[in-house]
């Protein structure tokens, strides 16, 4: 990065042609890979435009450069070529759940400010040790976990993936003080027998991507005695908001208020005017402005212009504020269920379902309906195998937080709810999965 080269982390779980798309799209000149990724690389090798293949390991193939040999000619002197604050520091490709992955260009100043804001919000110091057990091709793991500790001289403990026993064991072995988890991982951790582990060193925990059920949040608050926060952001915008539930125990489910370097507004759902701000209680689109925003989408000037307007990032997320200015994110604007002329946000229903003691996880989507346009449907993973649709309908009927028109009309009991590695429900895949079991539109 110091010499102006631009790293592009790639999701190693992608198929070979998806990897090729990203390499071609960004115009990469060098591809670095290890032995476990040889198969997809070899499948596309002859089609790649890269100038060098750099192999991490001891047995490179024909035409490949061993990584140690590649870096051996390097000098310990400062590079002669420098990069400015506004130059691209990296390109991170989004998950592409709504089409082809987009390359999100992030500048050096955006990376620095984002990392500093995270350190300030969580109170990280050089004495902290964070367990980083998720892939570094995601912005959360690379930018709000690894980079703050590079800056402040703390310690990052890296693992190759998440395992409940390994994670909790490492807390004691490495004296972990800070831990991030996507919601699913937080649920798994607090469900474990915590008495088997030495967890006294933990002080700071945080999550994002999706709401936690209130009972899980309270268990996490007990696990992290100093700080436990819901942090809202994206690849495009870092540290947009934060809500420390230790300080605000009556705001569970909220993502809090604007971060220290950000401005945040909720504007009319169909508006492009940053001054068209919603009143408390009105659902609109969340927009944000600040130095940790991305520069634009690689090679997509029109998409960039649609997303960044007058310096404001239009997130596409539906959100609402309360009378105290605390923000709740309802989900993607394009995930809004339109049923019988009413707009229903999945999180409104999911938050009620999460409070049922027999539900392990749930996700709500709108499926096509002959009568209503769309109808609210819930996919449920059961804790209690005896839980049935009638019991859930009775639960929703008696819940004062769920209007009648928002109640699920169809229930699907599933073993798994599709999600991406950051824990966000992939609602498109979930819809396809549920529709595959139907013969056509619902009534």
CATH architecture of the largest domain: 3-Layer(aba) Sandwich
Q: Multimeric state of these chains?
A: single chain
CA radius of gyration = 23 Å
* Strand arrangement, major sheet: 7-6-8-9-10-11-12
User: What is the assigned CATH homologous superfamily of the largest domain?
Assistant: ANL, N-terminal domain
Largest sheet: 7 strands, mixed
> Per the principal axes of the C-alpha atoms, what is the gross shape?
globular
State the domain count.
3
Query: Which percent range fits the helix content?
Result: 25-40%
Strand content: 25-35%
Which class of the largest domain in CATH terms? Alpha Beta
Low-confidence stretches: none
Q: Whole-Å distance between the termini?
A: 56 Å
CATH third-level topology of the largest domain: Rossmann fold
Name some characteristics of this structure:
single chain, 443 residues, alpha/beta, Rossmann fold, GMP Synthetase, Chain A, domain 3, 3 domains, five-stranded antiparallel sheet
């Amino acid at each position: 990065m110091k010499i102006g080269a631009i790293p592009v982390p790639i999701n190693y779980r992608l198929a070979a042609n998806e990897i090729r798309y990203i390499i071609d799209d960004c115009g990469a000149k060098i591809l670095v890979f290890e032995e476990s990724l040889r198969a997809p690389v070899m499948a596309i090798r002859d089609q790649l435009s890269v100038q060098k293949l750099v192999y991490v390991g001891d047995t490179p193939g024909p035409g490949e450069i061993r990584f140690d040999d590649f870096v051996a000619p390097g000098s310990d002197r400062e590079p002669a070529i420098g990069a400015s604050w506004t130059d691209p520091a990296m390109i991170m490709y989004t998950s592409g759940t709504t089409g082809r992955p987009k390359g999100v260009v992030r500048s050096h100043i955006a990376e620095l400010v984002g990392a500093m804001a995270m350190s300030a919000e969580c109170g990280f110091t050089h004495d902290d040790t964070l367990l980083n057990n998720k892939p570094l091709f995601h912005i959360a793991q690379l930018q709000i976990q690894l980079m703050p500790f590079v800056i402040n001289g703390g310690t990052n403990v890296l693992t190759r993936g998440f395992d409940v026993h390994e994670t909790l064991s490492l807390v004691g072995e490495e004296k972990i003080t800070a831990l991030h988890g996507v919601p699913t991982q937080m649920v798994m951790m607090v469900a474990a027998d915590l008495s088997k582990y030495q967890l006294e060193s933990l002080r700071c925990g945080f999550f994002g991507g999706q709401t936690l059920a209130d009972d899980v949040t309270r268990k996490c608050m007990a696990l992290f005695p100093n700080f436990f926060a819901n942090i809202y952001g994206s690849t495009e915008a870092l540290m947009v908001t934060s809500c420390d539930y230790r300080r605000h125990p009556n705001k569970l489910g909220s993502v809090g208020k604007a971060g220290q370097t950000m401005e945040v507004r909720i504007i009319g759902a169909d508006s492009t005017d940053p001054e068209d701000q919603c009143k408390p209680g009105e659902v609109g689109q969340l927009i944000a402005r600040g130095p940790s925003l991305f520069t634009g989408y690689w090679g997509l000037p029109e998409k960039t212009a649609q997303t960044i307007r007058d310096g404001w990032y239009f997130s596409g997320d539906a959100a609402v504020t309360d009378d105290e200015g605390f923000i709740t994110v309802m989900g993607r604007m394009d995930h809004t269920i339109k049923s019988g002329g009413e707009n229903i946000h999945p999180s409104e229903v999911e938050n009620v379902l999460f409070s049922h003691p027999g539900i392990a996880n749930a996700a709500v989507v709108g499926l096509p309906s002959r009568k209503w346009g769309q109808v609210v449907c819930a996919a449920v993973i059961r804790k209690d195998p005896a839980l049935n649709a009638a019991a859930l309908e009775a639960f929703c009927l008696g819940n004062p937080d769920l209007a009648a028109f928002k109640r699920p009309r169809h229930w699907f009991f599933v073993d798994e709810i599709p999600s991406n590695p950051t824990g966000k429900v992939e609602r498109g895949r979930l819809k396809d999965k549920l529709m595959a079991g139907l013969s056509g539109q619902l009534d």
